[in-house]
Amino acid sequence: MIFSFILAYLEHLSKRWPEVCLASFLGYLSLRCYLTYKTQIIANWPIVGGLPYLLKNVYRLHEWSAELSTIGTSYLFKGPLLGRQELLLTCDPRNVEYILKTNFSNFPKGPEYLETLEVLGQGIFSVDSDSWHQQRKMANKAFGAKDFRSSIATMSQKVVEDKLLPLLKHLQAQVCTIDLQDVLLRYSFDSSCAIILGEIPGSLSPSLSSNEFSQAIDDAREVIFFRNVMPRRWWKLLRSLRMGREREVARILKTLDQYMAHYISSKREDLLRGVEANDLLATYMKFHEDRNDMSLNGDKFLRDTVLNFIFAGRDTVASGLTMFFWLVSKNPRVEKKIMEELRILHAKNVADSSRLMKPNEPCIYRLEDLRSLVYLQAALYESMRLYPPVPLNRKGVLKEDVLPDGNVVRPGMQITFSIYAMGRMQSIWGEDCLEFKPERWFGDDGKLLSESKFKYFVFNIGPRTCIGKDMAITQMKLAVAAILFNFHVEVLDGQSASPKPSTILQLKNGLMVKIKHRVA
Ligand code: HEM
């Protein structure tokens, strides 16, 4: 009796106020979803899919990815109904190896992802298939060129010696608190530009003034991140309306184009005047000077190529260094062992009369010293395991395929894997996976193990493996050895290592330190 009365009343309401009824129904559904799913780390709600979870966690994306890895190694995430996109989140190392290496050709970056990299043009990083093959071949040739390889070490050493150490000496004398993350970003920017363009932009000057080119790279990265976390249709709509972050794109492109045009034309003039140059830009120009194919030698090709290398190298090296200093500050035992290694080498160099080392000048390490710094190398690998500079990777799917864990992937789907989560998985690294232990990188014979012995995806694996790995390790070792030997980096208490949401791992609030004199 009461039931039929309620039904009749509802029928009456829905006829008189259909909007109110629809709104109440949706409200009821949302409340039910909220109460059902509120304690879950992730779920696919009706209509909106997993978007509420993404929005809720976007500010702590990498920590969230590590939490997801504790409930399962793969999860099929569904986007909102409008433009529904399926995304397989995985941190199963078998899947990642299959995607990056075993069946590489079936998993290109794909048009959806490449669109988000618009500012990078058509460089090695932002193309697939034939164009990528061709560019990779050229890049392998450039990175294999003897003159270019030796200029990597010479230029990095020059930036450490002439720019980084004098700045740190100045900051030590000022006795002030500084953001080490910012200083290291300046170092990797100056050092990358020196190696790639043959010019040091001077961002390590004592005034620590801002640099327009470097700022445009930061802004471009933010746009790329934004496009990667927003549903595709949403950011495209914002782009057509020139709203939000998308409003910035034209200005960023203009700045990047202006700087690139300047560097390319002045390098061309230098080479015509017979100036000797072995930087990457000059190496590419020399490769192609006898070719008439303008698509390989034109300014647009050079602009995209060189910009891609600066993008790939600048933030990654700074990120690796920042997290290294953070971890070392929390692990004095490791710092002591690195210092022992550095002091033994220093004593050897002082005894070597050809090195002409003066007792009161800051100690500089050279390329030939780096090979013997094995504990330092292990500590760098280990810190990038816990804090990989590129924490996420994304791939598309060409043909339907079954991944090693049984998940079926189809064209149109996206696959994202978290290198951050995989670096912290007990099933890969053992019970002490969260400890910073460079010792895990040594075999029973005391020799440094190669990273291929581990499920270590920090530099990618397979055909698209990072081409700048050796360059990065050289830049990092030279900087760490010079900083630690000459200064004591005092990391201020009360800071946390929360990464900011970005395509490159960076600390949300920087790394505040005091630079002090190192007492021998
Ligand atoms: C610690 C420093 C670095 C780390 C952790 C790192 C990591 C990576 C990763 C994960 C990828 C694959 C990205 C993807 O497929 O989307 C990559 C690709 C690449 N890296 Fe690095 N990288 C570092 C430094 C550098 C440096 C210094 C350079 C040279 C300037 C460089 C040049 C490249 C290039 C050109 C690619 C694209 C390769 C291709 O697609 O064939 N990287 N790197």
TrEMBL record:
**What is an example of a Pfam family matching this protein?**
p450
Q: Which keywords accompany this UniProt record?
A: Heme, Iron, Metal-binding, Monooxygenase, Oxidoreductase
Q: Which residues form a coiled coil?
A: none
**Keyword Nucleotide-binding appears in the UniProt entry:** no
Stored Gene3D superfamilies: Cytochrome P450
* Domain of life of the organism encoding this protein: Eukaryota
* One GO process term, biological-process aspect: lipid metabolic process
**MF (Gene Ontology):** heme binding; iron ion binding; monooxygenase activity; oxidoreductase activity, acting on paired donors, with incorporation or reduction of molecular oxygen
Needed cofactors: heme
Keyword Nucleotide-binding assigned: no
InterPro entries the record matches = Cyt_P450, Cyt_P450_CS, Cyt_P450_E_grp-I, Cyt_P450_sf
Q: Where does the chain bind heme?
A: 466
Q: Which family does it belong to?
A: Belongs to the cytochrome P450 family.
Protein known as: Alkane hydroxylase MAH1-like
